[in-house]
Specification:
single chain; Arc Repressor Mutant, subunit A; 6 helices
Length: 132
């Protein structure tokens, strides 16, 4: 599983190593540079590109050139994927608290509110990383 911590580690490395907004590396060195195997790094970089954090060029010799885009710097300066996860969790917990308070105010809607609350709780549990 690629966690938000993995994405943050890779993104932080790219941003910190790219004062000129570019970062290049040889794919054989991915483990040494990022701490993850090439498949993980490649998947994360493809994801970063798909959400507009980087542009990347992959060369036949195994080289990779990354252009770090402004949204990547903004995301890092705002706490990265970890901060997004914490904000999501916080907001869902606030929503659950509000839904719990509505159970008592709207007893005729109790079953619907309970089903919504249970669905959100189950969904939130699926987002939490497994601790080993």
């Amino acid at each position: 599983m690629i966690s938000y911590k993995t994405k943050d580690k890779i993104l932080n490395k790219i941003v910190s190593e790219s004062p000129e907004m570019t970062f290049g590396f040889d794919s054989e060195d991915a483990k040494k540079i990022f701490g993850f195997n090439l498949e993980t790094v490649g998947s994360v970089l493809d994801y970063f590109e798909s959400i507009g954090l980087i542009d990347q060029d992959k060369f036949l010799d195994g080289g990779v050139m990354i252009e770090t885009l402004i949204p990547a710097h903004d995301l890092v300066s705002h706490g990265g994927f970890t901060a997004r996860e914490e904000l999501l969790t916080h907001n869902i917990n606030l929503l659950l608290t509000e839904l719990e308070s509505l159970k008592h105010i709207l007893p005729e809607r109790f079953e619907t509110i309970t089903a919504i609350t249970d669905g959100i709780t189950d969904g939130l549990a699926s987002f939490k990383p497994k601790r080993s």
